Amino acid sequence: MFHAFISYNHRADERLAPILQRAIERLGTPWWRPSPVRVFRDDATLVASAALWPAIEAGLERAQHLVLLASPAAASSPWVDREVGWWLARRPLANLLIAVTGGDITYDPSQRDFDWSRTTCLPPSLRGAFDTEPHWVDLRFAAAQPELLSLRDSRLRSAALSLAAAVRGIEKDQLESDDLRTHRRSVAMAAVAGVALGVLAISTTWALRSAGEQREVARANRMQAESRRLASESLSDLARGAPGLEPAIYKAALAWRLAPTEEARAALNRIDADSAGIARVLGTHTRGAYKIALSPDGRVLATVGHEGAVLRWSLATGLTVGTAFVTRGQPRALRFSADGSHLMVLGSVREKEAVQPALALFELADGSLRQLNDAGLNALRKALPEGRFARPCAATSASGTRVAVAEASVVVVQRVVDGTLSTTRLPESWRVGAMGFAGEDSIVILAESIYSGGGLRAGRIELAGAAQPRLVLGPLRAGDGTQCDFANFSADGRRVVIADRGVWQIDDALALKPQPLPPRALTAPERYGHHAPELDATGRLVAVGINGTGRVWDLDRREPIVTTPKDKGGHGPALALSGDGSRFAALLDGVPVVWTVGRDAPVKMSEPDCSQREGLVDRCIARLCERLTGELDDARWREMLGSDFRSLLDAAKASACTGVKH
Q1: What whole-number distance in Å separates Cα of residue 338 and Cα of residue 400?
Q2: Is the pLDDT of residue 527 over 60?
Q3: Which of 237, 377, 403, 507 has the least C-beta neighbours within 10 A?
């Protein structure tokens, strides 16, 4: 049984018909009760069928009222005309309700029919059907904005109430009163239900949050325990020396990712203090640059940091390039070979209460470390009284095929290609104060008396043409000597600059002759903590750092070339001159700055954001953590972590390398 059948044209009233159906069915009925009224609307009621009219006719048969949505489209629709014609033939005319949604409707009382010359919305089957003018509902306003149709519109609500009241057989005001009462009751019940649901939601949320917080606390405690365990294992690996360095770094990085505990931070700082491994991974100095060098052609800039990492810089971009080299110990000297093919680093390492030298030679063509095997240092160690080093010297030949090391009165030269060694001893009471190669087969030295004020003399060690190197010493010159850390030679060995002694010319007879200096070119400050002056290949240009300011002087013209800003540290700064004299570099506040001689504007390299003497900063730990924890394959992680490696890696993926404590 249907209380109403809605006849309409889909194209004209597809939006309005469903709203009217809903209104007729639900007005005055509480939301929790089923509707006492059923309305037939083809789109809502019919199922797919090959016989459309029989299905519509069955709906008409079961309907008590016909609601006609009149419009010009409905007037021209054969389906609407057929439905109305069927109704007029079988049902009371009083149960036909007209709602005009478009067009015009005019009734002519004199003709007792609609004025069909002016009526445009009714189907032909209604001709002569009404003896008196029927009551019809005007819904033409709804066509203006069909997308905004809603029973909240007072006009649409009033029209819907008229149709619903007629279908139900009650007065419109009674239905409206019932609907308002039902609405108020629904609002009250909704409010009560809302309060109840709110209380339930609050209690549920609290319970879920409490459970979530407990789970998070348990997870954080577990991650902190794992982090501390891995940090402890990392330090144990580090104690094994070189073989344990890689697993030590990886475990410490993973520990930080699981939870940034103080133990994980301490392990990372200890690794950084004992090696250059972390600086190598990050490609930056972690404890500040200390020494600087320029290649002979001025195209390559190199720095070595307190942690022992050697970086190369692009003068075009100001960024590091290539893989960082790794050295041992605190660096003391950084030198290019005369042809720029090799880079030598001399450092010092404290071992068993004694300071031992560490020497590395890098071949720049492929970035490899030439294997010196410490043979020269071991030979030197055996020749020294009690094997003790004070401040050794080191130098490399023009093409990097030979490396010389010296301490006290002994000079050991090693051929890199085959490890062949040769040893030269100075006369008794003399020691090596400075040393450098002049080409491939000749070493120039400054020999100083072991007695204060005992004098200074130049010397040469010839390596070619004899079974043993030949030592030649020049005439004695009064005064004190120097140390290798504070002296440098020109490429031909004809000039030497000493931090607090000035520049000396070495003639063919190896006589030392002081060179006239520009005013204030060199002073005699405290030597400790300052860096060696630099000469270009010809010895014409000299660079010296005094009390935090670096200066380059042209010795032949006796005029200044470059003066740097003052370094905040007050010592040095560390300086470098290219062999061809085209470029000059200085470490100013830990940042490399390069001048092209003859130009005003220097080029500042990008400041290393990890440099900090007190320990690794969080952003650098995070960068290390992100890079390392996603780098290795499962086999390597299993080897380092054991069978539970997968659970640790999965837990790490759920954490970020942020440094925020759990």
Answers
A1: 8
A2: no
A3: 507
